[in-house]
Amino acid sequence: MDTKIPIKIKDKIRSVFTSIDDLILARAPGRINLIGEHTDYNKGLVLPASIDTYLYVAIRFTTEKTICVHALDLGDTQHISLDKLELTGTLWVDYLIGLLLEFKAIGVNLKPFECTITSEVPIGAGVSSSAALDCAFLIALNALFETHLSPWDLVHMSNRSNNNFLGIKSGILDQFASIFGEAHHILFLDCDNLEYKKIELVPSDYTWLLINTCVKHTHLTSGYNDRVNECKQALSSIQSRYPWAAHLSAITSLGQLSEVDFENSTTKSRAEFICEENARVRAYMEALHQGDLERCGELLYASHDGLSNKYEVSCSELDFLVELFRENDAVLGSRMMGGGFGGCTLNLVHRDAISDVQEIAKHAYFDAFGIEAEFIVVNISGGAEVLSNGQ
Q1: What would you report as the CA-atom Rg of the chain, rounded to the nearest whole angstrom?
Q2: Please, is 290 exposed, middle or buried when counting C-beta atoms within 10 Å of its C-beta (0-12, 13-18, 19+)?
Q3: Which of 179, 185, 293, 344 could form a disulfide with 126 if both were Cys (CB 3.0 to 4.6 A apart)?
Q4: Residue 215 and residue 14: Cα distance in Å, rounded?
């Protein structure tokens, strides 16, 4: 099997499969998002990158009558009937079933298989373990059933499954970053027209540090879908106030707006945040081009302030960690990252100060909340790939 596969992953797979040489093995990474939060489902701008924590799927056909899936890290094995592809109430299984339905919808003749899942991507930390699961499973199925689907096909299949089967009204940021990621590059994506470019990272004295609040969230139980609906309400309000624009389809998403006279309501602050966040993505790109990391840091803090105060998706733990370093010269910028209501802060930290920053956060956070924070020094990695094709 491929030399990229860590020994510990091989050992886990061997705990299920006697022989692993005939397996298809795929992996997909978690992701960070430098800036552009909650803009993807508003057809706005995002700036993500894939990171070197991966979820692995090992898969092969079986002679059994059902699909057998093992979640090794959860100690859970489930059997899925091909005649009963419906919600089970077990979320990780429902992610898989939604994707199987996507394959069935395009005419794939599904056959029984067995697969094993194991992951290095932390769950509920804001680095999108769910997209890693989706994307690894998708590219494994793509290889297993020889469907030759394009990367964009897989992104949209995951997004449709999330939206329509699971009821998570998310955009395409997470799947895009996991599928299209490239080592030492960040990705700029316009979620309206799907134009994107890969931007090579220039080596510097600064790197990215994730601080996990260890406050868990899921999009189904947090206020995530509420924000999606509020943005739709804001757009509807704008279209009704500017009927000529709606008639001409000039305004079809908040991501197309730079500034507009919003009505004074809850949806006003949501819409203002989206417009301001898109402007921050553009400003961040310009600062990167100029090599102005201090400006990048300022934009991170501004993004967090908007997420906390206007979009209201932060929490006291996230706010605490961001404020902790606002006056620390070793940290150029910090903000909450991901859907919110828990998860990680993303911090632009001087490489020489990583250990000191971790110590400060560890003690201060525990003293404030009685919770042990977790830390991930980020390395930008490649995207989803098939490591072994079973031959």
Answers
A1: 21
A2: exposed
A3: 344
A4: 33
What pLDDT score does 250 carry? Answer: 57
Catalytic option among 174, 226, 305, 356: 174
Q: For this structure, is 174 an active site residue? A: yes
**From the CB of residue 15, how many other CB atoms can be counted at a distance below 10 Å?**
11
Say if CB 278 and CB 39 are below 8 A apart. Answer: yes
User: For 355-379, how does the pLDDT look when each residue is reduced to its tens digit (9 = 90+)?
Assistant: 999 999 999 999 999 999 999 999 9
CATH among 3.30.200.20, 3.30.450.40, 3.40.630.10, 3.30.230.10 for 7-201+380-389: 3.30.230.10
Helices within 60-185 (DSSP H only): 91-105, 129-144, 151-160, 173-180
pLDDT digit string, tens, across residues 102-160: 999 999 999 999 999 999 998 877 799 999 999 999 999 999 999 999 999 999 999 99
